[in-house]
Amino acid sequence: MNIETLQEYCLSKPGAEETLPFGPDTLVYKINGKVFLLVGLESNPLQFNVKCDPDTALELREEYPCVLPGYHMNKKHWNTIIVDGSVAMATLKQWIDWSYDLVKGKPKAKKK
């Protein structure tokens, strides 16, 4: 996975938007105004932050050396993924999907 593939995948998610709230070097992907992925454009190798269920976040860190506590994020809920070729692209996409789904959440019930 490279930055272009990552951008395309994130923007393919329904309602996703790409923003630059922290300056020109950090892309932030949001759904419903909430962040589901951050990526530094200058990172080499590519690395990105995704939100994760706290228990799953710990399990992934134990299983995969390329998964670290979220850099500059709440380490209970965020992981940093280093794209070093050790994890298949399908797995990386699954982690992005989990983050997107977690942040998107369930639609709020309308008040009567």
From TrEMBL:
SUPFAM superfamilies: YjbR-like. GO terms for molecular function: DNA binding. InterPro entries: YjbR (IPR007351), YjbR-like_sf (IPR038056), YjbR/MT2646/Rv2570-like (IPR058532). Keywords: DNA-binding. Signal peptide: none annotated. Gene3D superfamilies: 3.90.1150.30. It holds the Pfam family YjbR. PANTHER family: CYTOPLASMIC PROTEIN (PTHR35145:SF1), CYTOPLASMIC PROTEIN-RELATED (PTHR35145). This is MmcQ/YjbR family DNA-binding protein. It comes from Terrimonas ginsenosidimutans. The lineage of its organism: Bacteria, Pseudomonadati, Bacteroidota, Chitinophagia, Chitinophagales.
